[in-house]
Amino acid sequence: MDEIEIELTNSTPFTLLSKDFPDLTIFRWCSSEVDYVEMYGPKERVDRASRKLKQITKEIHSFVVISNSQENQSSTAISCRCNIHNSTIRLAESTNLLWEAPAVYKEGKERLRLVSFSDRELRSFFDKASAYGEVNVIKKKRIEPGSLRDVYNISLKQLFGSLSNKQAKYLSEAISRGFFDSPKKVKLEELARTQRIKKSTMQEHVNKAKLKLATSIEPYLSLYILSLKE
To answer: What is the DSSP letter of 62?
Structure first.
């Protein structure tokens, strides 16, 4: 079996929404009954995107189940009207692939993680998906059948729930800009200046975030060590 991370540029509704609002990050969870969508970014842009999502919902003859907005964030559940022509997720399922939630939409592109049981089924998916737009493989790795459960069994809340919003934000910024690379691609002073905070404040948030994250990971690391073959 293979685990594949792909990036798609297509004309599905959520990808088009992301194209209209490239500065937002959109997450999507989908069942056969409900699409649950979270959007993050500047409040004004999130509000506009939420209104656009409601418009799209009407266009696909669906309806909003529940909607909630907070500062820089919105969450919306809509009745699912997905099919293989307007949803990469449904297309993946139609070719016997598993998908790992959530799907992520950013800058007009959809990113999705899939599990394939055979090369034939994977090729079938790529052939069909390519008819709707560009498909690129970001990452691919072989996984053993007995390890499939490992793909799904850790939640975001378990890993990151102990971090404050600022700790999560500043740690993510430090990682993405190469603060932990060797050699470092960015200095702490620059990170602090970008966030308009003191160097000591940035250091404190990053250190606390690292400690909390390490503490959250430790139980899973211990289990993984036990599973290793000598």
So the answer is: -
Do you find a cis peptide bond into 183, omega within 30 degrees of 0?
A: yes
Residue length of the chain = 230
CA 64/CA 79 separation, integer angstroms: 6
Contact 102, 12 (CB under 8 A): no
pLDDT tens, 106-151?
Answer: 999 999 999 998 999 999 999 999 999 999 999 998 877 665 555 5
Q: How far apart are CA 125 and CA 103, in angstroms?
A: 16
Closest CA to 178 of 167, 190, 168, 166: 190
Distance of CA 120 to the CA centre of its chain: 27
d(CA 205, CA 6): 33
